[in-house]
Amino acid sequence: MISSLFSNCRNNHQVSNYRKSILKHYKKDLYTNEEIQLCLIKTTEHISICSDEKFVKVLFDYIIKMLKKENHNLRLTALEVVYDLIPQIDKKFRFINN
């Protein structure tokens, strides 16, 4: 559904607005239910990636947080998402602080 939403946007302004709306769910620890966390982590694959570092940082912070979970499904899904998203990220972008 998220893929369809982004692929059918008419302009960049729509994409940006949808991205901001979806991103609100990743910024805070709103959801403690592991099923919801799993849905959120799976959804990250379908969100249109942009060059906005704030946006990418919020997504990757969430993914990294999922990599640290005890639940194996969350960790494995987060690894799959990283594998799929890495080619889309600008090579100059640093999402992990040294």
Automatic annotation (TrEMBL):
SUPFAM superfamilies: ARM repeat
InterPro entries in the record: ARM-type_fold
Name by which UniProt lists this protein: Clathrin/coatomer adaptor adaptin-like N-terminal domain-containing protein
Organism of this sequence: marine sediment metagenome
